[in-house]
Design a protein that fits this description.
This protein has 371 residues and is α/β, with parallel strands linked by helices. It has helices at residues 19-35, 74-83, 138-141, 168-177, 202-216, 229-238, 250-253, 276-282, 311-319, 332-340, 351-360; strands spanning 58-62, 87-94, 100-102, 184-189, 222-226, 244-248, 287-290, 293-294, 306-307, 323-324, 345-348.
């Protein structure tokens, strides 16, 4: 879920805690520590007690967990299932002949996927790496080796040579093989709303993904996410019962700019007072998935870090009946800060780290599925 947003320095500090509340918290903590064995401490309010009165927290493996295994491959999802995550987060692109493949990039990155051989001798489109998925057939895309190269940003990645871009059907089959009946799928339709010529048409994404979800029999475990809120609106018409997750970041909202952002499906954020919560709620989204802050690889405590997912945003979303699942958080201090601010889950390249933080807080950890 990597974007390059315009920096909108929105900082809304939490209201100060009163002396009375501080005293009550201190007494409560003392009673708790006397009654329970020592638990791992954290920078937040953890101390082994789930915050906000719920034992549940959504641990989402971003593209299967890029920090652990090469992204978007069956090997990545397999390892995430064995680790134990709540949700497999993934992206879908559509090929020229209308097949879906699980991959993040609309243009095939030669640093991630290697050419092997053409589908037929003399294929004029070969090599395929560097071309848009929407311009290639399913057969052409499936010749690519997307498991042999390590992302230098993630030196601990486990490689899986020869892995192709999988299909939704293959992922659903893998989950069935694990008997992972409780695992969820957060499927992103990667419509490029600001450059629609670079991806398949919006409606093609919607129809293909909806058809595969219906065929799987696992619709009850699926959420659909997108930065392109128009795709979410179209999915609501196609499959009204599927929960919708509105992805966003400040640059895509275009607060204070004339007209509607191409990402918001015809909505003008200024008609909602600049509130992504109010805008997302207006078309029936069940969750908001905002970038956690800027820069996107920043962390709490960095001098240039500006939070976007704040306690105020979370409180507003909860009041409107929306969950908040920010992306993509990889360091533990920032994970803790967001949990303290009340988020309902986190999307991370390192679900192993997130699972450890969730354990600190006393959340109920998702089951591990080993074959």
């Amino acid at each position: 879920m990597s974007r390059t947003p315009a920096l909108h320095p929105v900082v809304s500090p939490s209201e100060p805690v009163t002396t009375t509340v501080k005293t009550a918290l201190a007494l409560g903590a003392a009673v708790l520590m006397a009654a329970l064995p020592a638990a791992p401490t954290s920078a937040g309010n953890a101390h082994g007690t789930p915050p906000h009165g719920t034992p549940h927290f959504d641990i989402q493996a971003h593209r299967g967990g890029i920090g652990m295994t090469v992204e978007g491959t069956l090997k990545a999802f397999d390892r995430a299932l064995e680790l134990g995550v709540t949700t497999l987060e993934l992206d879908v692109q559509i090929t020229r002949d209308g097949r879906e493949v699980i991959t993040h990039d609309r243009k095939i990155d030669p640093g991630k996927c290697l050419d092997t051989e053409p589908v037929r001798p003399g294929d004029p489109q070969f090599p395929y790496a560097g071309k848009y998925v929407k311009d290639l057939t399913f057969a052409q895309v499936r010749t690519l080796d997307c498991g042999s190269q390590q992302d230098p940003r993630h030196p601990d990645q486990e490689l899986s040579p020869g892995e192709p871009m999988p299909t939704l059907a293959e992922l659903f089959a893998l989950v069935r093989e694990h008997r992972a009946h409780g695992v969820k799928f957060n499927i992103e339709t990667k419509v490029e709303a600001a450059a629609p010529e670079e991806t398949a048409p919006r409606q093609e994404f919607v129809e293909r993904v909806a058809s595969e979800v219906e065929r799987s029999g696992l619709a009850r475990n699926v959420t659909i996410q997108s930065f392109d809120w128009g795709a979410l609106m179209a999915m609501k018409e196609r499959m009204p019962k599927l929960p919708l997750v509105a992805l966003t970041e400040p640059g895509f909202l275009e607060v204070g700019e004339p007209g509607a952002s191409p990402w918001l499906g015809g909505l003008d954020i200024d008609d909602f007072g600049g509130s992504p919560v109010r805008a997302a709620a207006s078309f029936g989204a069940s969750a908001l998935s905002p970038v956690y802050g800027n820069p996107q690889d920043g962390a709490v405590g960095d001098p240039d870090y500006v939070p976007f997912t704040t306690k105020e945003l979370v409180d507003e979303a909860h009041a409107a009946g929306l969950d908040v699942i920010p992306w993509t958080i990889n360091d533990k201090p920032t994970m803790r800060k967001l949990i303290d601010d009340g988020v309902d889950g986190i999307i991370s390249d390192y679900p192993n780290r997130l699972r450890e933080v969730a354990a600190e807080y006393g959340f109920k950890l998702p089951k591990r599925y080993r074959r």
